[in-house]
Here is the input.
Amino acid sequence: EASHAGSSEILKQLRVKKYEDLGLLLRSWRLKQKLTQAQTADLLDIDSGNYASMERGHRVIGKKMRNRIE
Here is the structure.
């Protein structure tokens, strides 16, 4: 039971890292385009606060959003 809880925590951390990695990719692209977060959010037709959360890895980037980004 204890090892199961530990592995669940590791999986959770890996998922969070994945979101953070995606956020870093978004930020890198945005900076190369010389855009602000607000401008990028407007391009994606989302709230700038939601976009900022995605960049920080605090918000999941779902399939629909990934399709918009691509």
